[in-house]
Amino acid sequence: MTLEEKASLCSGHDMWHTKAIERLGISAILVSDGPHGLRKQPEGSDTFGINVSIPATCFPPACTTASSWDPDLLRQIGAAIGEECLQEQVSVLLGPGVNIKRNPLCGRNFEYYSEDPFLSGELAAAFIVGVQAQGIGTSLKHFAANNQETRRMTIDAIVDERALREIYLPGFEKAVKQAHPWTVMCAYNRLNGIYCSEQERLLTSILRAEWGFDGVLLTDWGACNDRTAGLAAGQDLEMPGGLDYNDQSIVAAVKSGLLAESVLDRSVERLLTLIARAQDNLRSDYHYNADEHHALARMAATQSAVLLKNDENILPLATSAKLAIIGNLAKKSRYQGSGSSLINPTRLEHALDVLGERSLNIAYADGYDRLSDNVDEQLLADACQVASSAEVVVVFVGLTELAESEGFDREHMRLPANQNILIERLAGVSENLIVVLLGGSPVEMPWIGSVKALLNMYLPGQAGGSAVVDLLFGNANPCGKLAETYPLRYTDTASARNFPGGPLTVEYRESIYIGYRYFDTARQDVLFPFGHGLSYTNVTYDRMALSAHTLTDKDTLQVSVIVTNSGSRAGAEIVQVYVRAVASTVFKPEKELKAFQKVLLQPGESTAIELTLDRQAFASYDVDTAAWLVESGEYEIIAGASSRDLRLKETVTIQSADCVPNRLEALADYYQLVTNKGKITDVAFAALYGQPLPTSNETARKPYTANSTLGDIKGTLIGRILYRIIINLAMKANTDGDLERQLATRKMLQRMMAEYPLRSIAISSGGMLTYGMMEGIVMMANRKFFRGVQKMLGSLPKRDRHLLSPR
Ligand code: BGC
User: Fold this and answer.
1) By C-alpha distance, which of 745, 777, 742 is closest to 761?
2) Which of 104, 128, 681, 724 allows an S-S link to 179, with CB 3.0 to 4.6 Å?
3) Edge to edge, what strands does the sheet with 606-613 contain?
4) Distance CA 241, CA 221 (A)
5) Whole-angstrom Cα distance, residue 349 to residue 353?
């Protein structure tokens, strides 16, 4: 390969293809989003990647399937999506997303699994195994610490090493080590000062050297900052393609000796391996069975729904009950999230239609307008009237597409105001009020005390209609458990004081105290704890046994417990094993999930659950020695039905060969603030972070650079003009779907575009805005007007060069 050919292979051809090199018989391969279905865009799709995609099964997104706690279900879904990729000749599915739910307001939480890295990693690994067993690659994303949408392309996440190792990386690590994804996608953001796309430590020292990743590292779409720095750091493929500027910069860097050609060769080899692998697995005659996949999507929604409350066993309902179904979300379901993961479903079920098909005794009212938060008294009055003549009222509420999406974070943790008021009013006319909740992340529930039952369907995918009806009437027994905590109030969350940060940095001052790790350590009451979920049957826990009561740090420990279905219906239980250090000189969370298993039990059936804990279950990451160390001492092994429903406990003593430095003394202030729910001060966080905290103020944003966002330069004349042009283009993009979808897509584009760094606009413009033009714009924004104009004119795309020649 010539130097130019090698460089060209390191960026895409267009939005979704790698480059072909005909001379050498190297073909292009096609990649597509994911993760909860196949989002393949037809040829010639738009620059924004939002045009309608070809039909595919819309499985429930990760927020939902995570509540199944069932790796085998994730494997089956992965296999089914892999089959759809086979049919559509897609070689790599862009998912799963394994980022931690640091804060309930992250707009993209619906695409992620959990606040717990162990659970996230197990589920992501199973999904990858499922997809890749079909000969289709995956792209584990977004590596790493991409935990918010606000300023996602430039924000600098300031994360201490312990939190990185114990919270933000282990999900990736587990997925890489257990499932060997063909590719990993690096995140947009910076991490501790350096863009993830060019962070040698992250991409090479940790991912490849420590974890053994041997696949292709690609950038998130538009995440490439400095191309040669990225390549040198271990990033192989820049996406999307369409601009040869960066290919040229690689060639120039090699020629000038700035980049060793061997570094380029290393990436080219990885890319050729990926392409060959993809080619070997391409099939021209494959057809998946859409009915079977729909049935799997239904099973997934049923297995993942979480029954959060069920007073007086009001659920399941009798088919003879006179029912009022209230809420527009019953008529038109919300079943997936918006953004790059949006699937065009092969079929779509809405609960009200399914209820109608089953000829049940129901009356219906809308209750609210889902396009606004405003209360409509007429809709409320109609709903109350319908409700007052029913025996049982089932109200469907949830987050609409305008409330949560990729591209922006939620503004608050409440449901739309008109839905909260609807529930209050309905509670005034019915004592038998049941709430069905839809949406991708937790909401505050001021009305929880006045409803009898609460069934959380999350975002149930295309077959959610049948799933919810089966669950309400007991044709299926709920068995999901929360993979995240539902706080009482947003302000109770540990990260609330430091989310979303900005304009330059976001400090993860809560460190390892995420989700239940914080709530349990700080003894903070919650609405629903991590791991909680009810069933229509009862399961008891007995006879916990450990294989040993003293062990060394090299031994593994077998934990067994007998679970019995003491009720009269078949049902599944998710047994959770937590480990608690009784005394520790390393500050630790109160307890941590270290093993789990889901088991189906027939009425009266007992079974022994056996789980294994290895060294890692007891270890903490020691920053000074850069190693996982196990402290000698006592540990409690706790079996729970949730993180706050702890059923059985045994103690084990570990004699460890590790010498663990006492970190508790040095960080006593920090730890005290966490346990007392105090505000983490600059001094306390700096002590934990181990270096001075970087600045995050506005003034640091000047002079403007290629990393300034469109929003940053909006105050300048050229910035205003560019902003208008781009927002207009985005608004004209062909958004498909109904009004709600269109409004949501526009809101997303508007927010995203304003936060796009100029370099990414150039990369993603498909050649419309060359890199040189962008540099000219930066000069003009910095008041170097004439030099900027000159630069711009000299950099017009080739096809527009005629504009410069005299007439
Ligand atoms: C998202 C990725 C996605 C990519 C391609 C990005 O904006 O962050 O998750 O895979 O676009 O659509």
Assistant:
1) 777
2) 128
3) 539-546, 557-565, 606-613
4) 9
5) 7
User: Does the pLDDT at position 805 exceed 80?
Assistant: no
Mutate to test the pocket of ligand 1, among 30, 220, 752, 756 (most ligand atoms within 8 A of CB): 220
State the pLDDT confidence band at 803, using cuts at 50, 70 and 90.
very low
Question: Whole-angstrom Cα distance, residue 749 to residue 731?
Answer: 8
Q: Closest ligand 1 atom to the C-alpha of 111?
A: 9
Per the CB < 8 A criterion, the answer to whether 259 and 250 are in contact is yes
CA angle at residue 304 from 301 to 306, to 5 degrees? 120
* In the chain, % of residues over pLDDT 70: 97
**500: cis peptide before it, omega within 30°?**
yes
Q: What is the pLDDT of residue 734?
A: 61
226 class by beta-carbon count within 10 Å (0-12 exposed, 13-18 middle, 19+ buried):
middle
The pTM of this model reads 0.96
What is residue 4's predicted lDDT score, i.e. its pLDDT? Answer: 97
Mean pLDDT of 644-654: 98
Q: Is 671 in the pocket of ligand 1 (CB under 6 A)?
A: no
Whose CA is closest to 406, among 195, 114, 110, 734? 110
Q: Is 369 a catalytic residue?
A: no
Compute CA distances 58 → 191, 413, 458, 542, whole Å. 33, 26, 14, 40
Q: Is 755 in the pocket of ligand 1 (CB under 6 A)?
A: no
User: pLDDT band at 104, cuts 50/70/90?
Assistant: very high
